[in-house]
What does this fold into?
Amino acid sequence: MQGVRPSSVRVSAALAGLSLATILSTGARSEEPKLSISGYDPVAYFTDGRPVQGKAEIEYLWHKLSWRFASEAHREMFTKDPDHYAPQYDGYCAVGVAWNEPHKDTIDPNAWAIVDGKLYLTHTTRGLAAWQQNAEENIKRADVNWSTVEHQAEPVIVGPPCHDRPPSVVISFKEGGQQLLVGGQTAVDKDGNVVGKGDMRAQLEQVGKNIEACLKAAGAKVSDITQTQAYVTDAEAFSKSSDVLARYLGPASTPSNVAQVSLSAGPDFLVEIEVVANLDPAAAMSANRRP
It folds into this structure.
């Protein structure tokens, strides 16, 4: 659920206003440079054609961000021409910046593309695929939006019980609107064990529990849900058992979109569901999150 709302493919979420970002970030943290693109080496996308984790001891401060590199040579290349190697929009999700309600969003270092010699990163690989279908228009839109988005609040990752990959994120809009993107939930228990192998209904039950817990952690309610996206291996089996979702997503529990795909989580998984929910500022402030 990432996606590109400019082309209505993105099923993403957005978060807190500037005041919320201030509350979530401690004074000490706000003075420290943010680690860019999860510590991955921006130069490696060009030289190696793949994401490579940078080393903590090989860093460079640029645009008030800390950039890491896999080698001294890569750091030197970056320092000589940072505008060439740095990802666009300071490494925030190119989809979020291009959205009709532009915002900062986190990225997956594996969701990347080089277009006309420039590096772009997105929140998920699915979002990247959608973005690439209309890359030229999305880039034009994001280039215009960035001067405003650059000064908006940071995205905030919701911690446990939400899963880390993909993360559930709260993102802020310019006018203070807030939304929560519950990253794709699969049928795993709190210890990471697969639940209901080969059983769609059992997996939907667990996915529902995981979504319910994540909503609660972020200060959201079932009634706040505005959109859902389901990825399934068997659309017919999903349809026959989807009524179980009503226990966790409320009466309007039918996913807004259902796509039959192979799930990257692995062969044991039959369903993955993402949810978008509006957030109440007061409730969001009380939720435990990490930037």
Summary: The longest strand covers residues 55-62. The chain has twelve helices and twelve strands. The chain has two domains: 17-149, 156-290. Residues 156-290 form a domain with the 60s Ribosomal Protein L30; Chain: A; fold (CATH 3.30.1330.40).
